[in-house]
Amino acid sequence: MNIRELQNIEPYNEIYYKECFYNSFFPIVNRYKKNIHEILANDIILYSLSRNKNEIGFNAHCHECKVVLDVIKNIGINTEAKTHSENVISDTREAILRDRPVIIWVDCYYLSIRKDTYQKKHAPHTLLIYGYDDDRRMFQVIEHDRSENLTYKKTELPYEDVVNANKGYLNNNFDVSFATFAEFFCGDEMKNGSLHEAIEIFSNNLKDKKQMILDSIELIKDCQDHFIEVVSSEQKIKESANVILNNLNNIINLKQIERYRLERFFGKDNPAYSSMEGIIKGWSHVRIVIAKYIFTSNYKLDAFLNAVKILSNIYDLEHKYNKALEDMIVV
Fold first, then answer.
1. Is residue 89 part of a domain?
2. Is 132 in the same domain as 8?
3. 28, 95, 114, 149: which has the fewest C-beta neighbours closer than 10 Å?
């Protein structure tokens, strides 16, 4: 067949989930009428702190309690993956002919539809491919127009772009621990994973990782001390501001994921949700302070010291949030 397009695949724009792979994968979950609850339940958000004296190393990361491929299989979706495709065009066409959407790992430098990175910046990324047109040599893909932005939509990419971008991913030594080419298909049609089961998994994960979570919250105090040291010197904050801003963007993104999971599992009408709202508001305020300095170069010590006070409030809210969560799920 010269033209083939898989049906029932729609962009996922509810939230940017950790990294581009998930926003490529979640449309596949929805296509097979599965749900993402167990994937959400598998992640524990933790704070981290680098001891590098030259920068603010406070950040956050996702701890996956189980290998994500095992979770994917458990919700009834199977994967055939390879670290390297010898013929991307042929392998993709064959997968789609078998009714299997494909996720391919690429370097955005070679994607002509990405005006933010095309021939400007090398960046690892994933594409969801769900169709092809041999006559026009175009793949049907779901893609967004810039990094970490919820503008995923159906669009087209030339075959040559995808081939070059996949080669670029491999040539730039980006992570290949999982794959650079993967096709997905429905495994056990009876498996779906109920919300109740996901909440039980989440509860057990919180119980198992309780001390890890509490230890990560304590790092906020260390962050305060380090933050005071850096912002008290205009030279130090000038050197560190961009790193701090990038870290704050990541922290806020992960806290928004926590809020998203909380809403899907328990709704908004609970003490944990209101605490998480306060946490996100606090981090957002700190980000505004740093961003204003970057864009104006106007050093105001009082504004930075006020941000330190907000960090203290975030610390209290994190403990309040975790206590409320424990009471809700009876860890």
1. yes
2. yes
3. 149
Are 181 and 238 in a shared domain? Answer: no
Sign (positive/negative) of CA torsion 152, 155, 161, 167? Answer: positive
> Would residue 295 count as lying in a domain?
yes
Amino acid at 173: N
Q: What are phi and psi of 307, to 5 degrees?
A: -65, -35
The verdict on 149 and 10 lying in the same domain is yes
Number of structural domains found in the chain: 2
Indicate the length of the chain as a whole number.
331
In a domain, 9, yes or no: yes
The torsion angle over the Cα atoms of residues 163, 112, 14 and 176, rounded to 10 degrees, is: 30
CATH number, domain containing residue 233 = 1.20.120
Residue 182: strand, helix, or coil: strand
Q: Which domain holds residue 249?
A: 195-329
How many CA atoms, within 13 angstroms, populate the side-chain half-sphere of residue 77? 28
Full pLDDT tens readout for the chain, 331 residues: 799 999 999 999 999 999 899 999 999 999 999 999 999 999 999 999 886 655 557 899 999 999 999 999 999 999 999 999 999 999 999 999 999 999 999 999 999 988 888 889 999 999 999 999 999 999 999 998 777 677 899 999 999 999 999 999 999 878 777 789 999 999 876 666 789 999 999 999 999 999 999 999 999 998 898 889 888 999 989 988 999 999 999 999 999 999 999 999 999 999 999 999 999 999 999 999 999 999 999 999 999 999 999 999 999 999 999 999 999 886 4
